[in-house]
């Protein structure tokens, strides 16, 4: 019996076609807080995962996977985050509506309010300096993490090219 993804509205079933597309299936953690987080992430009332319950890779970010070996695995502590919930299961985004929060926004310096238009509506900021951490150490840590990721991807690319070359040589020898 093929396994189906337990996510709301997901029709992915474990089969050769999806495997060839690169979709993988992952069992729920066996016990503990992580399993509870996975169950809560699905937003299904009264849902309790069994030993065979799985989620497909469509519900995880690409950086959640460890694909250094032959088997694609999830990194430790990862929780599924990508779902296509209907409107009644969407979480509402909290907006500031209290007098105090509005007053605080009114007292901001002009340069911090550059993304607010003349009518008070928010515009897209043209510069993204607000996204940079204030601490240079944090920027350096992000840069180092990105460098590690680049080196890892270069190594994976090199390995893939070597595998491809070996496969072509094997095919040539078989002909």
TrEMBL record:
Q: Where is the THAP-type domain?
A: 1-83
Q: Which InterPro entries match?
A: THAP2, THAP_Znf, THAP_Znf_sf
Q: Which GO terms describe its molecular function?
A: DNA binding; zinc ion binding
Q: Which PROSITE patterns match?
A: ZF_THAP
Cite the entry's keywords alphabetically: Coiled coil, DNA-binding, Metal-binding, Zinc, Zinc-finger
* Coiled-coil positions: 143-170
Pfam families, from UniProt? THAP
Q: What is this protein called?
A: THAP domain-containing protein 6-like
Q: Which organism is it from?
A: Scomber scombrus (Atlantic mackerel)
């Amino acid at each position: 019996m093929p396994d189906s993804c337990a996510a709301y509205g997901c029709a992915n079933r474990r089969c050769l076609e999806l495997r060839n597309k690169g979709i993988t299936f992952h069992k729920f953690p066996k016990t503990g807080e992580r399993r509870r987080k996975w169950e809560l992430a699905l937003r299904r009332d009264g849902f309790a995962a069994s030993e065979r319950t799985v989620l497909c890779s469509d519900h995880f970010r690409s950086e959640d996977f460890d694909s250094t070996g032959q088997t694609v695995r999830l990194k430790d502590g990862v929780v599924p985050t990508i779902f296509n919930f209907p409107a009644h299961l969407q979480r509402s985004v909290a907006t500031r509506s209290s007098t105090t929060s509005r007053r605080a926004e009114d007292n901001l310096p002009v340069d911090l309010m550059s993304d607010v238009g003349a009518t008070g509506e928010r515009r897209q900021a043209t510069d993204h300096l607000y996204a940079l951490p204030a601490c240079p150490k944090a920027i350096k840590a992000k840069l180092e993490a990105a460098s590690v990721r680049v080196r890892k991807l270069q190594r994976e690319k090199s390995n893939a090219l070597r595998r491809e070359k070996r496969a072509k040589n094997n095919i040539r020898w078989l002909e």
